[in-house]
Write a structure and sequence with these properties.
The protein is an alpha+beta fold. The chain contains twelve helices and 21 strands. The protein binds adenosine monophosphate and glycine.
Length: 417
């Protein structure tokens, strides 16, 4: 089988590495660090299966375009991708499906006054979200009403996020531990990928510093059992898929569901229509069997196999460029990669790299490398990953030292069995 992976980051490198165990893999556009990379667009690649990694090509209709020419695609069309592309649409859909979620209202650019009025009916924390994609930066959570009002006005006027913010969703603030799950959906049903992962979003240790795309991740979460995840499938994901079907949306791909475990039970925070990055890097390599066959079944609308996941633990540490997340510096030569890769249990995925004229690997993005350790226990996996991190260097390299160490233990099980 030949598989075409669309994207260029660490998630797509993890897809390519895992799929290449059972298939020939081409990655577009890929990068200097990913084998099989090609400059040809996906539409010009002849493959048996197309796996679309990031949300932007999904939201822009690449899956529809490929399907229109008879190709098998893992990833939803524009209609299903609305779950991530429009928070107002997603909230309306999950509310119609009876999924527990934060109380909300949505407003367009002519409704700034109504938006501030609605804010005044809520208790802190206040949550103001852009309706459209904002690269993970469109959500404000604050205890300060004035700040929330200003944020709502700036989003609606287009000042802060352009068109993505001209519609907003305002929500009641929830508190509790956050967790996410991943399910494969073949248009008819959703099947849980039976493991959990936790991302560390802040730049610095102990969750200090600015928010990022994710500075590292571990899997599985020791405090979370599979029955908990199946319960969340029943509460949220299965009803969502039924509601999608009711609206004639044939959703084929992954559903990445984020929850807040509140004292009143789990509440759905968001859906993403693609795998998490760096969650994929600690999940995909542990999926057992032939991943390309499983994803092809999803793409054909007939998932018959039940995915299973190795009991091993994995930890990935993101190595980021100087200046990330605001203005990452590019072009620094990366040292020590071969030493790192030679350590048993280590896998390195390239997230933002290029090569220079001497053929050396250089930094070419904010998140540059994902250094993964795999072992029977989380502790051992973390130690392996950090041994490899110590081997790698470039000027200004940033990383957290506590990935998989400051782990979530306090999950509120109220409302789940
Ligand atoms: P979202 O993209 O909708 O998941 O929001 C991004 C982040 O904002 C989440 O991971 C939460 O940390 C936070 N957040 C979103 N919605 C709420 C809410 N209703 N209450 C509290 N925090 C929230
Ligand atoms: N790591 C979070 C995300 O991919 O959205």
């Amino acid at each position: 089988m030949k598989v075409c992976v669309v994207g260029s980051g660490g998630r797509e490198h993890a897809f390519a590495a895992t799929l290449s165990i059972g298939a020939e893999v081409v990655v577009t556009p890929g990068s200097a660090g990913i084998d099989g990379s090609t400059e040809k667009p996906a539409t010009a690649v002849d493959a048996d299966l197309y796996v679309i990694g990031p949300e932007v090509p999904l939201v822009n209709g690449l899956a529809d375009e490929l399907r229109a020419s008879g190709r098998h695609v893992f990833g939803p069309g524009i209609d299903g991708a609305l779950l991530e592309a429009s928070k107002a649409w997603m909230k309306d859909l999950v509310q119609a499906a009876g999924v527990p979620t934060a109380r909300y209202a949505s407003f367009d650019e002519n409704q700034a006054e109504e938006a501030t009025e609605f804010l005044s009916t809520l208790c802190p924390p206040y949550v103001v979200k852009t309706d459209g994609l904002a690269a993970g930066k469109g959500v404000l959570v604050t205890d300060n009403l004035e700040e929330a009002e200003d944020d709502a006005r700036n989003k609606l006027s287009g000042v802060s996020f352009g068109d993505a913010g001209r519609r907003i969703v305002i929500e009641e603030g929830l508190t509790g531990a956050e967790l996410s799950l991943f399910a494969l959906c073949d248009g008819q049903k959703a099947v849980l990928i039976p493991t959990s992962a936790q991302d560390h979003k802040r730049l610095h240790d102990h969750d200090h510093g600015p928010n990022t795309g994710g500075m590292g991740c571990y899997s599985p979460m020791p405090s979370l059992g599979l029955p908990d995840l199946e319960e969340l499938m029943d509460i949220a994901v299965h009803p969502t898929v039924q509601e999608l079907k009711k609206r004639d949306i044939d959703y084929r791909g992954v559903l990445f569901a984020g929850f807040m475990m509140t004292k009143d039970g789990p509440k759905l925070l968001e859906y993403n229509v693609r795998f998490g990055d760096p969650e994929a890097q600690v999940i995909l390599p542990r999926v057992e069997g032939n991943l390309s066959e499983t994803l092809l079944e999803v793409a054909k609308g007939n998932l018959t196999s039940q995915p299973t996941v190795s009991a091993d633990a994995m930890v990935t540490v993101v190595l980021a460029a100087e200046g990330y997340p605001t203005s990452p510096r590019t072009g620094d030569v990366i040292h020590g990669l071969d030493e790192a890769k030679a350590i048993e249990g280590v896998t390195v995925f390239c997230a933002g790299v290029d090569s220079n004229t001497q053929g050396e690997l250089i930094t070419n993005g904010g998140r540059v490398l994902n250094i993964c350790g795999r072992a029977p226990t989380l502790d051992a996996a973390r130690q392996i990953a950090y041994r490899a991190v110590d081997a790698i260097s470039w000027p200004g390299m940033q990383h957290r030292t506590d990935i998989g160490a400051s782990i979530e233990t306090d999950i509120n099980r109220e409302g789940i069995k």
